[in-house]
Amino acid sequence: MLYALLCYNSEETVFSWTKEEDDLVMTRLGVVHDRLAQAGRLGPSLRLMPTTAATTLRKSDPPLVIDGPFAETKEQLLGFYVIDCADLEDALEVARDLGRANPGGAYEIRPLRLFVPGTLPADAASRVPA
Amino acid sequence: MSEVAWISAALTSARPQAIGALLRYFRDLDTAEEAYQEACLRALKSWPQKGPPRDPAAWLILVGRNAALDGVRKRSRQTELPPEETISDVEDVETPLAERLDGAHYRHDILRLMFICCHPDLPQTQQVALALRIVSGLSVRQIAKAFLVGEAAMEQRITRAKARIAKAEVAFETPGPVERAERLAAVAAMVYLVFNEGYSAGFAETEARSPLCTEAIRLGRLLQRLFQTEPEIMGLTALMLLQHSRAAARFDDQGEAVLLDDQDRSLWDAGMIAEGLALIDKAMRHRRPGPYLVQAAIAALHARAARPQDTDWAQIEALYGTLEILTPSPVVTLNRAVAVSKARGPGAALAMIAPLEGPLGSYFYYFGARGAFLLQLGRDAEAREAFDRAIALANTAAEASHIRNQLDRLMKDGSGAQAAG
Q: For A63, A128, B116, B252, which has the most beta carbons within 10 A of its beta carbon?
């Protein structure tokens, strides 16, 4: 099976780290990342910008753009995309396209601050139900 | 992260909300601060044993309020404080309290707390010192260090500021939309002052002062979380991030200020730049640009240029034109002239700044820019005169030495020309 590990923490704390503190954490994590990457077990890994950089597209008809992160509690996180976009408008356009294909719920659009493509082998997809 | 570090980070981040709410209960800043201090002391005792509460701010508000009320009771009845165990029902009471602390409620508490620090009667330096003490929770020693004054002097400055605020009228009812917008604008200006206290420091003071930049960015993000749809708050945070992204490149090994054009751009912080650009994207969607957003957009054009010659000076000139309309000032015109000199040449720029000598006659940057334009036009003698006046008006050693370098270059080139002739 492939597992997603979703990272939660207090963003105010994490984004108050000094560069040295941040580097220290990333170095410690790097040891674990390297071990997983060498074993071909590390898939795409990423670090998000703070929620202050988020915009939410509520998939209503018509779709509604809201400043800020997804804040409802009635819905749960069910998946995510990583998409290369020119800017926020472009990302919103992609989100509207996806929303037309699958209305209901919302997309929170959050820029990345770190992206590691990972080392999963090409056949990794066969390790989840088809 | 160690336990102590976690607790201190949690106390710092809960501080504005907790003191803001305690201020609403007690309507007195000193009482609110004392109550918060007492709650922190109890947190340091209780959290390592019982684990952190689900909502640290709610815990601190409740415990702080009870502690302050106990204090009042103690003073009035001369009875002993109740034993620590009697406030251990906090866990039960915490839940409904946390539910009542919805965003709409506590954001007014935080805004009010920040707003009283920028009372118009207070000089700007006192506003900044007070905000750092009350909202950010820096110690008097830390603030004194950042302002390069003695601890006793800073203590006195803060006490005086507090005394002035105690006499002022503070509105505790929830502000209407107009008043809220006014408060938010004043608070944004104060946050930018905090940032500039750190950013305008010379090399020698950078270490002591640059924490003010990160603190201002933290306050900017806090404001943005509270008021998510305000493009000017997005613009303010973006502006601070983009300016601070250059911190590592702004001074050379000798501590000399390095001009934007000469900075090693590989030292710019790519993470801060990307976040700043993302915030500008968000803010632009609102299509009502304010001064912070326009300044952020200018900083973004510098940040996007891989090399100085890639800078889109025509666009920067246009943005300064917008800024001139939003906030007309000779300094903005001077900045537009610098963009004009890059986009259209020093002749046009020199003509533009000619009327500014009156209002900017004692302004370092005016003569620095004038000297640079004249130098580019080959009018060396006039350039030297302008540079001499700039040096006389320099506020920091770095400013003076930057101009002296240009003068040296002028002398060298001048003697070279003579030798060639």
A: B116
